[in-house]
Amino acid sequence: MQEGQIIKALSGFYYVLSNGVTYQCKARGLFRKTKETPLVGDFVKFEADNLTDGYVTELLPRKNELVRPPVANIDQALIAVSAKEPEFSAKLLDRFLVLVEFNHIDAIILVTKMDLLDENERPKLNQYIQDYQQLGYQVEQLSTEWPVQHEVFTQLLEGKTSVIAGQSGVGKSSFLNLLKPELKIETAEISQSLGRGRHTTRHTELIHVYGGMIADTPGFSSLDFDQIELEQLPFCFRDFESYREDCKFRGCMHVNEPNCAVKKAVEQHDISEYRYQHYLEFYHEIKSRKPRY
User: Fold this and answer.
1) Nearest residue to 74 (alpha-carbon basis) of 46, 110, 108
2) Does 18 carry a binding-site annotation?
3) Residue 239 marked in a binding site
4) Which one in 91, 172, 266, 272 has a CA-CA gap of 20 to 30 Å to 127?
5) pTM of the predicted model, to two decimals?
6) Is 25 annotated as belonging to a binding site?
7) What is the mean pLDDT of each run of 10 residues along the chain (293 residues)?
8) What's the pLDDT score for residue 174?
């Protein structure tokens, strides 16, 4: 029996990396009984007589997992949002941040295509960047020319398993190609009618970059809160943290309750109005979700 990490899942096969060697494996039937599904990023026990006919026999405990994309044991998420083409969306960024916070994954925000902004568009975006930095998020600004500061990314990625998240067309594949040119990941033009890119990534895979692993993941643009219960949502907004204890009611949802410290902080501009509005939208979205049985 050996131990390794699943670095790719494709067509029913799991590619397990162990001591620098990759084994092609299938999952044992017992996973169907336990209703467990091996994920890219999982640490597993497996047996293999050769490189192409192995079997994954056991999943080791996960520290976290994402449903869409299906990937486990992530240390940090690089959330790519574009300054333009498609337009910067704080609401979309907050959706990503809620999912990342819910899964206890550190978030680093990459604002791409900064060079496409007009001078009169910059102040508004700079204010957004400042707001997220004040919340404690690291924000890196990138241009379409991708002048990657290697030292910055070496420090960011080394020894970590990272996931790249972001809507289609923000430049995730271009970014990975720049970090590791030999990947030659296919990129797609922005669809003019939809204002978004076409998906070019078709499976999830962990790629060695700068001493760490990055998951290039399809499907992260379908963002819903299926896994998040209503009472968990406030904990996904780190700006609420220092005010929660001062609310009159324990378990305050910061919506209709009287003497709510969070609402007071919004009125006093200590919490951004737009962040609070996004919270309310997400709150009503989860509240109106059909019950699951």
Assistant:
1) 108
2) no
3) no
4) 172
5) 0.80
6) no
7) 94 93 91 86 95 94 83 90 90 93 92 89 96 96 67 82 76 66 55 39 77 72 77 96 94 96 97 98 92 62
8) 65
Does the annotation list 260 as a binding residue?
A: yes
169 is in an annotated binding site: yes
The verdict on whether residue 213 carries a ligand-binding annotation is no
In this prediction, residue 73 carries a pLDDT of: 94
Close Cβ partners of 164 (under 8 Å, ≥ 6 residues apart): 77, 78, 80, 172, 175, 176, 214, 215, 216, 217
288 is in an annotated binding site: no
- Say whether 81 counts as a known binding-site residue: no
- Domains for the chain: give ranges and CATH numbers: 2-61 (2.40.50.140), 71-216 (3.40.50.300), 230-287 (1.10.40.50)
Task: Please tell me whether 172 is known to bind a ligand.
Answer: yes
170 annotated among ligand-binding-site residues: yes
Which residue in 61, 62, 142, 128 sits closest to 97, CA to CA? 128
